[in-house]
C-alpha cells in the first residue's frame, strides 16, 4: 500500500490525493443498504434482512426527554467525557446488570460506540502494533485499525460452534507471532453470528490478557438482547479491559449516535485528550435524551422488542434447513443469523445482488465479516417484524426452488 502522493509524485495542480492509510476495505453492507433503497424506490417491494439496526424508534421516554430538552437546555458543548448525570446512570446500569461497581469517572460518553473505538485505539496502540480479531468479526474493527496503521491479525477460533476466541487460540497465536498481541478485540454477542462467549471463557481470556499485557477490548454493545445465555461483562474479570457500550442496539437509538466506554485507569487521560480533540464531546442532545432510555418505562418497551426478536429468531432458525442455508454459529443474542450458502453460491456478494434483484429481499454478504470464508456465507437480520420476515423467507424459498 502506498499513498497516491508517493506514487504520483504529484506536486500540485491535480487536486488532493489520498493517503496510503485511507485504502481500507469499503463497508460492503452500506452498498447493500443503498441497493436495497434503490429497489424500494423502483419496485416498492423491498424487505430488508440486511439492516444491522432495530426497526423501531427510540423508546417513548427518550422522545419525551428529547422534546423537553429543547426548552430546557441551550445544547452547547458538554464536558468531553459526557454529562455527569449520564455517566452516573451508566455506572448504575453496569452495577444492576452485572453486580460490579463502576466509578463514574471511568465512564466516557462517545459518539456511538464507533467514536469510542477510534479514540481508544489511538490511545492504546501505536502504528505497527498487532491487534488480534477472531474470524468472522465486525468489519469496522479491522478497517479502523488498519487506517491507524495497526497490524491486524485475524485467526480462526478452535470453537466452531460459536467462533468465539479462547485461551488456546491466544496461546497458539502468540507462539505464531513470537509475542502476545498488543490488543484483542472481542464482541459478545457477536456481529455477524450473534454468538455469546461463555462466562468461563471470558474470564480465562481476561486473565490471559492481564498476564500477557494485551489490551482486551470487549464490545458489549448487544448486551440486553440475548435468548437464554448470559452476557458476561469483561469488567467482571479485569479492570484492565476496555468495555464498549452503545445506545444503538438494545436501546433502539441507532441514529442518535451515542455510546459509552468503561476505560481502564491507565488510558483515561489519553482517551480524554484524544476525544476532546477529535469530537469535543458526544452530541449534547443525545446525551440528555439518553437519560430517558435508562428508566423502568423504557425498559418495559425495550424488553418488548427483545421478546419480538426472540420470536423472530425462532421463526428464522426454524426455516433455515428447508432453505438449504444451515446455521454457522449459535445465534445466542443480537438479531442476526450467520448462515452457510455454499450450496447456492461461491460469490456471496453477487448472490445477494441476484437475490435482491429477483425477490426484493436484501441480505448481507459474508465478505464484510470474513475475507477468507465469507464468499459462501450470508448474514440475515431478524430485527424487523415477523410478517415481513415470513414473506421474505417465502420469497427466498421460491427463488431457491427455481
Ligand atoms: C459489533 C458492533 N460493534 C460496533 C458497532 C457500531 O455501532 P454504533 O457506533 O452505532 O454504536 C456495530 C454496528 O453495527 C456492531 O455491530
UniProtKB/TrEMBL annotation:
Source organism of the structure: Dietzia timorensis
Question: InterPro entries recorded for this chain?
Answer: Aminotransferase_I/II_large, AspAT/PAT-like, NHTrfase_class1_PyrdxlP-BS, PyrdxlP-dep_Trfase, PyrdxlP-dep_Trfase_major
Q: Where is the Aminotransferase class I/classII large domain?
A: 45-396
Biological process according to GO: amino acid metabolic process
EC class of the enzyme, as a word: transferase
Specify the protein name: Aminotransferase
Show the taxonomic lineage: Bacteria, Bacillati, Actinomycetota, Actinomycetes, Mycobacteriales
Question: What is its cofactor?
Answer: pyridoxal 5'-phosphate
Q: By its UniProt entry, which Gene3D superfamilies does this protein fall under?
A: Type I PLP-dependent aspartate aminotransferase-like (Major domain)
Into which family does the record put it?
A: Belongs to the class-I pyridoxal-phosphate-dependent aminotransferase family.
Q: Does the keyword Transferase apply?
A: yes
UniProt GO molecular function? pyridoxal phosphate binding; transaminase activity
What residue ranges carry the coiled-coil annotation?
Answer: none
Keyword set, alphabetical order: Aminotransferase, Pyridoxal phosphate, Transferase
